[in-house]
Write a structure and sequence with these properties.
Helix 3 packs parallel to helix 4. The protein has an eight-stranded parallel β-barrel. It starts with a strand and ends with a helix. The chain is α/β, with parallel strands linked by helices. 43% of the residues are buried.
Length: 260
């Protein structure tokens, strides 16, 4: 039986210089690396060349987390929406250039003015996803939409919101199940029970149900024993990326043990 592949997100060192991050790429007990295309780690042409060389030298497989700083694919302000899409389309090109196996992006975020335009953010988000999916298909890049916590004004925090997306767009875009985000909404098990066939990528971190702390997998209220047992039952054989900012090596080792 195929097993899940354990990877690591470089999110834990996003406050460091890009070159320092690159030096860490081959120091983990995994060959599956998720890069962060945002802030001071955005993927320029020179950096893409550098990352391709590192991947070739150490046999690494990349996924890319799309930019999310000041990005809103559901914005009702047209110039802001266009700027978000322009940045994301460039990130898709970057992902293609480093042969990334997955590109993860965030859903729309509600704004204070949105209450005067009911449902416009959801509809704009659907249109944005259609545009991004079309470009991704042309580039041969797999993409997946991440569930986010409603407490931070994001859409797509529950399985029902994803089911609505599938009803209204008919797009086969997969889900990146972020366990920390799901835990804040009490939705870890519902996502597995209701949308197992849509989950194509997983972000693993822990928290205590109040804030998105990105703790190590044993530091919080998520039952990782039960979760990994559930993954085995559904035959999940794709990537589980450690997205912790504390106890990263220990989290990789723990997940490998639980999913063995």
């Amino acid at each position: 039986m195929s097993k899940a592949k354990i990877g690591v997100s470089m999110f834990y060192c996003v406050g460091e210089s890009f070159n320092r991050m690159v030096k860490r790429l081959d120091t983990h007990d995994t060959k599956y690396i998720e890069l962060f295309d945002d802030a001071t780690h955005d993927l320029s042409k020179a950096r893409i060349v550098q990352l391709r060389e590192v991947a070739k030298s150490y046999g690494l497989t990349y996924s890319v987390h799309a930019p999310f700083s000041d990005i809103n694919i559901g914005s009702i302000i047209k110039p802001m929406l266009n700027a978000s899409l322009k940045r994301l389309k460039q990130s898709l090109l970057n992902a293609s250039a480093i042969d990334a196996k997955m590109w993860v992006f965030h859903p729309a975020q509600r704004t204070g003015i949105g209450q005067f335009y009911p449902d416009a953010d959801f509809k704009n988000m659907c249109q944005s996803i259609e545009l991004l999916y079309t470009q991704a298909e042309e580039l041969g890049v797999n993409i997946s939409l991440e569930n986010m916590p409603g407490k931070y004004w994001f859409l797509m925090s529950t399985p029902e919101e994803f089911r609505r997306l599938y009803r209204e767009t008919s797009l086969p875009v997969g889900i990146t199940l972020d366990l920390g985000h799901a835990n804040l909404e009490g939705q870890v098990q519902p996502f597995i029970d209701e949308l197992a066939d849509k989950i194509v990528h997983i972000h693993a971190s822990n928290n205590y149900g109040t804030d998105d702390q990105h703790n190590g997998v044993d530091e919080g209220t998520i039952d990782f024993v039960g979760f990994t047992d559930a993954l085995k039952k559904i035959g999940y054989d794709k990537t589980v990326v450690v997205e912790s900012i504390t106890n990263v090596p220990q989290s990789i080792a723990r997940l490998k043990q639980l999913l063995a």
